[in-house]
Structure formats: structure tokens, C-alpha cells
Amino acid sequence: MGIWNSAVLLYGIPLPDDHDAAGWAGEELRDAILANHEGVSHATAGPYDQHTTYLCTDHADADMGKTKTIPAPDPAGQAERDARLHRACLELDYPDHPEPAWHLIASQS
Q: Is 45 a domain residue?
């Protein structure tokens, strides 16, 4: 078994560790709810065995030492991306979520 290092860039909202949808037990819950929210997905990233779950609208990852070019998101769609994330958070019973933001995460798995 080895450790895989990567970098993840995503636009979204982290779910708190104690939220039902954040852990492995919440995978089915997330998948069922997010199936109703076009353009919203989820990703997990972070230090080995301490990943954080994020709801996101934009997501890209790259292997360490590799370059990945990501086109800039359309600024005209910003309000809609934020609204999609907010609606998904409400359905996941997370109304007091932080504002969506760009997260650059060094990740290990």
C-alpha cells in the first residue's frame, strides 16, 4: 500500500465532519440528494485519513509534479452556482453553511 499525493482545486462548501452527509455513512444520502441538483457534486480531499467532504460546482485535480490548466469559470454564472450550492445545503439540512469559495487542497489518499 502506498500514499498517493495530489492537488485538488474546487469551488464549493465544506461539510462539517459531524454532519451526516460528510462521512462514509452519508454517501447514499449525498448521492440521492445531489441527483436532484444539476451542476452540484461532491468531492473528498485532505490529509491522509482526514479528508473533508465538499459540495462543489467546479472541481479539478492534478498529480503532484504535473501541470493542469483550468479555464476560468464564466463570471456571469457565479450567482447561479452559488444558488445551486445553497439549495443543496438546505436539502442536506445545513442552512448555516459558509459562503462558497475556491479551495486549493493538498490531498493524500
A: yes
